[in-house]
Design a protein that fits this description.
The complex is a heterodimer.
Chain A lengths: L20 E6 L11 E7 L2 E8 L7 H6 L3 H8 L7 H16 L5 H30 L3 H21 L8 E2 L2 E2 L7 H24 L2 H7 L7 H7 L4 H5 L6 H4 L20 H24 L19 E9 L2 E9 L7 E5 L1 H6 L2 H5 L4 H11 L3 H5 L1
Antiparallel strand pairs in A: 1-2, 2-3, 4-5, 6-7, 7-8
Chain B lengths: L19 E3 L3 H10 L3 E7 L2 E6 L1 H13 L5 E9 L7 E9 L4 E9 L4 E3 L8 H12 L2 E3 L29 H8 L6
Parallel strand pairs in B: 3-6, 7-8
Antiparallel strand pairs in B: 1-2, 2-3, 4-5, 5-6
The chains are: A alpha+beta, B alpha/beta.
């Protein structure tokens, strides 16, 4: 080893002590980022000056895989994107391929799809509520939410054998007929939820700590929501009554009577209220669908070999997180030529920087929770 | 040992075509009037509005659709790679109007190495969406404020969603250097 000469330490910049800017790295291994999200925060004391998201830690190349699988083979993969709301992912994918094939789905299959998708919305919102409250410091709700979520998941388990990555739907309709006590179980979950949502309200809505931690935090107004492409409960909390189930109904949603919950301020508390009301509306849809479920076949006229004509289609649905779109390009072969997923979590996360500016570090945790992201869907 | 029987192939039928009709109305008429030759076709493909345009006019078309026709929400920006075509990449912008509840797709072809116009000055949502297109296809967007990779690591070589990129292809040097393993497969 060569002899080292002593190098004098670099002269400190005179401005160093004056500047208060600090770069703080949060994640990817951080419990409140709901997965492997890394946020680089620029701080002035406790105040956030800017946030840069580093994503891609969970990138599995789903869109590339799609090009190398047949249409049926790819269907289970979509469940692995938003694994909290796998049924919604499956519905969007099936609708997109059905649009290319131009097939009609029997009414019974449509009704069962609506029931399962709304049950999944309940499960997704319950998981969001529990973890969001946990992030902010309320420990109790997470146990209660998981208890109720269990009831929903056990319906999925009885219906198709899987609890999370369900692969419940097939292109053209359903694979399985409903089981014997399906209707009864669904109504039981609705009754249970009616009661339990009240319990969550008792725990959180009037809670002074909860109100102070969420009111006025992470405000995103309607104009900014549209500018950043933010959809779902975040947009509705900003006062825009826009829901694809009403705006461009699919799978027979036009038959059911429900409301679009909205709020005014577009802050974290408003988003919480909107999602809570959405759970009640989901129960309302499930009740109507269960009571009017028609008899008949559960699969449309789709061959064993799925070969859509050359062309392209974009179909989107209202997933629990926002607009979930599938853009499928077919070249007339057995595999999709190109399959693009328009993930709500990814686009909504793009507004994180805007929402974080000027808030405190502890609020960043609340804001990440309130956007309701699933990193499996952000990174695909 | 059982003799190998050839697999029965399904009967080859000519694939049907997606129903297509010309898209009439005030939006395509206004587009044609303003941009003339740059609008190649306007059609309803399977009932969905689609305008195929020249890449040179794409920025103007998006600005007009946003500012004059109320398409205030950029849903998605994505691309498709067609290696055998002269202009290899097709960029699709999906727009939505809250006021009229309409969806429009604008599609333009761009060649290898050519730049596409960025929609970031019109819509903030274009920022991440265009970064993803750049990341996956290597298409550069002009005047994008922050054109970095988004899902793949910054130093990764190659653009995964191009057709010549293999399904299990990887940047071997990057994997060796950063993950300290011989192969990620």
């Amino acid at each position: 080893m060569a002899a080292t000469t002593l190098v004098p330490p670099p002269v400190q910049d005179d401005t160093f002590l004056d500047s208060n800017e600090l770069v703080l790295n949060m994640g990817p291994q951080h419990p409140s980022t709901h997965g492997v999200l890394r946020v680089i925060l620029k701080l002035d004391g406790e105040t956030v000056l800017g946030a840069d998201c580093v994503i891609g830690y969970l990138h599995r190349g789903v869109e590339k895989i799609a090009e190398n699988r047949t249409y049926q083979q790819f269907a289970p993969y979509v469940d692995r994107m938003d694994y909290v709301a796998a049924v919604s992912n499956g519905l969007g994918y099936c609708l997109a391929v059905e649009k290319l094939l131009d097939v009609e789905i029997p009414p019974r299959a449509q009704a069962v799809r609506v029931i399962l998708t709304e049950l999944n919305r309940l499960a997704s919102h319950l998981l969001w509520l529990g973890t969001h409250a946990l992030d902010i410091g309320a420990i109790t709700p997470v146990f209660l939410c998981f208890r109720e979520r269990e009831e929903v998941l056990s319906i999925f388990e009885k219906y198709c054998g899987a609890r999370l990555t369900t692969h419940a739907f097939r292109i053209g309709g359903l694979q399985y007929e409903t089981y014997d006590t399906f209707e009864k179980d669904c109504l039981a979950v609705c009754d249970l939820m009616q009661e339990k949502v009240k319990e969550y309200h008792d725990l959180l809505t009037g809670n002074r700590i909860w109100v102070r931690r969420t009111t006025g935090v992470g405000i995103l107004n309607a104009a900014d929501c549209k500018d950043y492409g933010v959809t779902g409960p975040v947009l509705r909390a900003a006062g825009v009554p826009w829901d694809l189930r009403k705006a461009q109904p699919y799978s027979g949603y036009e038959k059911y009577d429900f409301e679009i919950p909205t709020a005014k301020n577009g802050d974290t508390f408003d988003r919480y209220i909107v999602r809570m009301q959405e759970m009640e509306q989901s129960c309302r849809i499930i009740r109507q669908a269960v009571e009017s479920i028609p008899e008949g076949p559960i699969k449309g006229k789709v061959g064993k070999v799925i070969k859509p004509p050359p062309g392209e289609a974009y179909v989107s649905i209202e997933a629990p997180k926002g607009e979930l779109g599938y853009f499928v390009v077919s070249d007339g072969s057995l595999n999709p030529y190109r399959l693009r997923v328009r993930p709500p979590s990814f686009v909504n996360l793009g507004a994180l920087d805007k929402m974080c500016r000027g808030t405190l570090v502890a609020d960043v945790v609340a804001i990440i929770g309130t956007i309701d992201i699933v990193l499996g869907e952000v990174d695909r | 040992m059982r003799a190998k029987r050839p697999l029965r192939r399904p009967v080859k039928r000519k694939p049907a075509e997606m129903p297509s009709a010309p898209w009439e109305g005030s939006v395509p008429a206004a587009l044609r009037e303003r941009f003339g030759e740059a609008i190649e076709t306007t059609q309803l493909l399977g009932g969905q509005r689609l305008a195929i345009v020249d890449i040179g006019a794409a920025a103007g078309i998006l600005a007009m659709l946003k500012n004059e026709r109320g398409f205030d929400y950029l849903v998605d920006v994505t691309a498709v790679h067609w290696p055998e075509k002269e202009k290899q990449f097709e960029i699709t912008w999906i727009l939505y109007s809250f006021a009229s509840n309409d969806r429009v797709r604008v599609k333009a072809a761009v060649g290898e190495g050519a730049k596409a116009p960025s929609a970031t000055s019109l819509y903030n949502s274009a920022n991440w969406l265009e970064r993803e297109v750049y990341d996956m296809f290597g298409i550069e967007f002009e005047d994008h404020p922050d054109l970095r990779r988004i899902l793949m690591p910054d130093e990764w070589e190659g653009f995964p969603l191009r057709k010549e990129y293999g399904l299990i292809q990887q940047d071997a040097d990057w994997v060796r250097e950063n993950l300290k393993i011989e192969s990620a497969q």
